[in-house]
Amino acid sequence: MKEIFVLRHAKSSWDNVNLSDHDRPLADRGIKDAAKLCVFVKNKGYMLDKVLCSTAKRAKETFDLTADGFNFEIDKTTYTDKLYFGDITDIIKDLRELDESLNNILIVGHNPTLHHLVELLANEQIDRFTTCNLAIISHAGKWISLNSHKCSLKSLIRPKDLAN
Questions:
Q1: Which of 19, 24, 87, 88 has the most CB atoms less than 10 A away?
Q2: Residue 140 is part of a domain; what is its CATH number?
Q3: So where does substrate get bound (predicted)?
């Protein structure tokens, strides 16, 4: 069984209007939410084989704050512009090309792309995929055969629902 962890970046700061969208850091709430999520995933014992992360500062910071919970070394992360500029087809193509020895993959990126990805793979509608939400999708099959008929939404974790 393969698992795809889909993490939307935490809440970003709009304090400096002169920054480009790509360079916006996390807001205080985003930092707190990412820390809460880190504790949650650590307590669950989730492990990752590979991380694909957007090159945007807020996505990188979100993963930096949660990496310890996933017991994943930050320097082994694959950063890609496809998760900032790309779309669902780019992500699915990359997932289908993964080595079969990899079972647990984390994708860190942005909406609306990640919301649509979760809905497509899980073959179900979700109301909202807000900042710092983590979806866990199970896939019964090989990466090359990734499609909604072999996937299901296992969990949708929202920091606001987690204990402090």
A1: 24
A2: 3.40.50.1240
A3: 58
CA distance 81 to 139: 25
Binding-site entries for substrate: 58
Q: Cβ distance 30 to 58 under 8 Å?
A: yes
**Where in the sequence is the domain holding 100, given as residue range(s)?**
2-13+23-161
The per-residue pLDDT for range 72-121, each reduced to its tens digit, is 999 999 999 999 998 999 999 999 999 999 999 999 999 999 999 999 99
Question: What are the strands of the beta sheet with 78-80, ordered from one edge?
Answer: 78-80, 50-54, 104-109, 2-8, 134-139, 151-157
pLDDT tens across 146-158, in order? 988 889 999 999 9
Q: Which of 22, 96, 1, 116 is nearest to 52 (CA)?
A: 96
What pLDDT score does 73 carry? 93
Binding residues, as ranges, are 58
